[in-house]
Amino acid sequence: MSTPTRPSLDDPALSIPVEHAGIFDAIPLARTERQQEFYALRDGEMLLNMGPQHPSTHGVLRVILKINGEQVTDLDPVLGYLHRGVEKLCENADYHQVISQVDPLEYISSLFNEWGAVLSFEKLLDLEVPRRAEYIRVLSAELNRVASHMLYMGWFALDLGGITPILWSFAERDEIMEMLAALTGQKLLFNYFRIGGVNGDLNHEFMSRLGDWMSRAGAQLEAGMSLLNENEIFVRRARGLGVIDRETAFRMCVTGPNLRASGIPFDLRRAHPYSVYPELDFDVPTRSEGDSLARYLLRMDEVRQSIRIIDQCLHQMPDGPVSARLPRLLRPRPGRAFSAVEAPRGQYSTYVISDGTDQPFRMRIHDPSFLHLQLMGLLMPGNLLPDTMAIMASLDPVMGGVDK
Amino acid sequence: MDRALKTLLERKLGTSMEGPVRLRQDQAEIRIRPGDLPQVMRTLHDEPELRFEYLADLCGVDTGTTFQVVYHLWSDVTPDWLRVIVDGIPREEPRLPSLTFLWKGAEWMEREAYDMFGLVFEGNRDLRRIYLPDDFVSFPLRKDFHLADDVARSPGGGVRPMERAGAPKDADETTLRRTSPGA
Amino acid sequence: MTAVTTYWNRLSVPSRVLLVALPTLLVLGGLATLAVALLVAPLLDFLAANPDLVRFAIAATLVIVATIPTAFLIILLELKVIARMNLRVGPDRVGPFGLAMSVVHGLKVLAKEDYTPRGVDVPIFTIAPVAVFLATIMAFLVIPFAPGLVAQDFNIGLLYFFAIGGLNVVGLMMAGWASFNKYSLLGALRAAAQAISYEIPLTLSVVGVIILAGTMSLGSIVEQQAGSFLDWNVWKQPLGLIIFFIAGIAEANRTPLDMTEADQEIVAGFATEYSGMRFGFFFFAEYVNVFVISAMTAVLFFGGWNAPFDWPFPVDLALDPGSLGLGLLFVAGLAPVLGTVLLALPFWLGSSRISTLQALLIGFVLFNVLVVGAFLGWAFLSFDWVVGLFWMMAKSYLFVLVFVQMRATFPRVRVDQLMGFAWKWLLPASLLNIFATAIAVSILANR
User: Fold this and answer.
1) pLDDT for residue B31 is more than 70
2) Residue C62 pLDDT exceeds 90
3) What are the chain C neighbours of A385 within 8 Å (beta carbons)?
4) Which of A231, B52, C43, C222 could form a cystine bridge with B44, CB 3.0-4.6 A?
């Protein structure tokens, strides 16, 4: 292999003849060290653009792959196609409006987005949330976690080529969405949590749907999972793929199920408890292999634990109000607050700075998918092209969260 | 609210911190100067009694007069979050050392801080914009950012890329058909 | 001239059409009559002198025509069966229960814009779909559908089949290379690698069958499996069947061995830059290929057009409608009316919501169904080729359903796993099969 040369736009190997270029941009001038390293093509390598329009990037994501035949040697993700400037929008919205702004970030698990924001505000205000509201929060959030993991299962299988599990998991997800629609009025971006509680009490339709679902949830989910767990082709593809070891996990700031699949039993619900999680009895599943199969199986374990939690919530639900009465114009004292919740994808945290007015001075949202996409740069090189999508799917990124 | 953490930090970091360790609810907050950042972080990460191995968040803040960069760390030794605020970064020269030597995951977070504020992290191998197009000139999360003017001034602003594609490279805005931002 | 133009301008459009069309038709009709009168006699002599050529021409035309409904049917099966496996319904608006969906797909593919992207190698780009479709149709030529219903029964039929399979790959590579697209290139390279790797086990796996049959002619292979289902080759060559079927999946580019067109990774692989009817060619060729592999499995291992038990045909029903004489006309006139009325009666009497006209319509449809059924039954009992065709189609479509079910169930096998499987497992297994068969045959022959 020849040594990598510094790229220049005069290099004939890098330029595209004018009659072919047309709407294609020329390769950009590489300014940073990493870009120079990336755009220097060795013998036999070529750049493949897995563009924002592609059947299986998880949202609008552009990945520039450097491939040598079928093997990926390097990659450069280009983000920002879904960037909405949420942090700036939150600076211009008052504290109650922030909840709707923050909902569409990780839109598949949007109750956790709201929870992160609302928890920070309650810390700023030193507000105590009624216990019934806390239990309802945990109940609805764990339902959302199950729905999110079901989507993950389907999407993972779809990226590997199996077209059936996603439809089975969507049947599951549909039931949960109907339940949550009965509770919150929405199926995807719930806008349900409020500062100091939730938007409305449990109602009859929700409880009857939930009861129906709980009576067969376990068996139905196991049947769905058995499509993949025992599928030889799926297991052979996912085993040993994209292994994250302990060192890498800490260095890359990995959180959530991806971290626990590498053997580190760190779950914010146990490590830094919030809400009523200390009163609930559930395990934190951990697996030590760190490969895609472990990440998948771990999320399925988490689904089982979530069902356990939902069951306990239903039995332990106290009576009482479901939200604290707050003024419409909320002016917290100047200060700073940080809070983190365990979202289905990892640690979803918010850092809010208040300056005494009714709008946050700075609303910083940190979602887990952002750093997991960064992991891709470490995991993919050396693997084959089909595994690219498999690794990305196993990390479970949601581009709404990545791009904010 | 971990008072033991407060004494521990004062013992280990001492003069590097500016001001006292503030404890509030479940967060402990320290402030440091930009120059002290690598060594303070190394201490927090490596010291066996501290072991802050988990970087939860890295963000920039524009206080209106200066910039701050805020790090949130977690360790097994304490139930509190540790907030490290690097204060006093001047607006006209917003440079500070990068943390990528310790946590490679900080690379993208620093890119985001650069993209939104213009903070330059020295030592970051890949400091370019992450969300916005490469030719965007201004930094949105700054307090003096004015959307319409800044976007119009940027070479990418207001012109749809497809219209630009057929034109020669040195065509300026007046020759390209322009629409107002938002149209 | 101006008189003509003024007259022309005063005419309406239909009149203009007639004014041009009628004389043209008269002239053409005259010429045609002349041509027929002069040429038909020598033409008929020529055809009579070369019956094989005539037979081949008709067979080839029928084969080409038959591939299209086959593709339609398989597309429909795939849509509906996979939908049911996915807990969905599939298309159910177009036609009764969505059965006309394939036809609509075909029309859609014809109606789409068929453009050539900039930068492609136009001759190769244009010919590639033709090559792929041609390979599939040509393979149809040797499949024995029923005794006497084989387009061309070569005595090297099996060899011909595998040779034509290679043309498929050439077409895919042409498509991938000529499209000015890296995804297509990747698809083409994968197609080549996969097809070449799996062709060897495919070919070797049927050597056992050839040894047993002593001939490569597909018609003879089927005839030698006559008798009951215990005479089929599957009991004598189980390993051969497994290898052939798996290699056939790879040759047909179907999940789980469909690296070539992995949707989620390389968009549409070699077919990324194709649209309209060109894509339709690839699309149809794939489904017809599925049928071809299924049919070959049935032919080689499951007895082709032989029934699973000894069929005592032709059964002579001793029907003689001519004996009715003039009464036949009477029956032919009266039977439909009577049948319609009799079959409409239960519906008309049983429900008050069905009007007389609706009941008569239902009765008419049912009568037609009965008549067709009776006719088919009579054909089934009287003609051996009808029976043979039925069993052949039943077996082929059984395997088509297996293909469809596998697509719904399995994820995709990775490129290197796919190639490793072919070279490290299927190839040695097929060699083992050949040796075992040869040894067994020589031992049994010597005894």
Assistant:
1) yes
2) no
3) 186, 265-266, 415
4) B52
Q: Do C163 and C264 share a domain, yes or no?
A: yes
Statement to judge: residues C91 and C123 lie in one domain: no
Residue ranges of alpha helices (H) inside A51-164 are 86-91, 95-102, 110-125, 131-160
Considering the domain architecture, whether residues C128 and C229 belong to the same structural domain is answered as: yes
Tell me, yes or no, whether C128 and C240 share the same domain.
Answer: yes
User: Judging by beta carbons within 10 Å of its beta carbon (0-12, 13-18, 19+), is residue A331 exposed, middle or buried?
Assistant: middle
State both tokens at A263: 């053997």
Rounded CA-CA distance A304/A285 in Å is 10
Same domain for A115 and A172, yes or no, is yes
Q: How would residue C115 be classed by pLDDT, with cut points 50, 70 and 90?
A: confident
Q: Is A379 on the interface with B (CB under 8 A)?
A: no
pLDDT for C295 equals: 94
Paired tokens of A277? 């999680």
Q: What is the architecture of the domain spanning B3-149?
A: 2-Layer Sandwich (3.30)
Same domain for A142 and A66, yes or no, is no
C388-424 pLDDT, tens digit each: 888 999 999 999 999 999 988 888 888 888 889 999 9
Residue A206: the pLDDT is: 93
For residue C319, pLDDT over 80 is answered with: no
Same domain, A132 and A235: yes
Q: How many domains is chain A built from?
A: 2
Quote the minimal CA–CA distance from A31 to chain B in Å. 8
- pLDDT at A354 > cutoff 50: yes
Residues C86, C139, single domain; the answer is no
Within a domain: A204: yes
User: In terms of Cα–Cα distance, which of C411, C428, C418 is closest to C191?
Assistant: C418
Domain ranges (residues) in chain B: 3-149
Percentage helix, strand, coil for chain A under 3-state DSSP, each rounded to 5: 50, 10, 40
Q: Which domain holds residue C91?
A: 43-111
Kindly list the residues from chain C whose CB atom is less than 8 angstroms away from the CB atom of residue A171: 87
Nearest 5°: CA angle at C348, between C344 and C354?
Answer: 110
Domain check: are A125 and A59 in the same one?
Answer: no
Co-location of C70 and C124 in the same domain: no
Distance CA B116, CA B150 (A): 13
Among the partner-chain residues B57, B108, B128, the one whose CB lies closest to the CB of A374 is B108
Mean pLDDT is lowest, of B143-157, C45-59, C233-247, C394-408, for B143-157
CB contact under 8 A, C86 and A168: yes
Q: Which of A24, A123, A338 to mutate to test the interface with B (most CBs of B within 10 A)?
A: A338
| Spatial CA neighbour of A343 closest among A163, A102, A24 | A102
Tell me the C-alpha to C-alpha distance, in Å, between residue C33 and each of A205, C28, C44.
80, 9, 16
Residue A7: inside a domain, yes or no? no
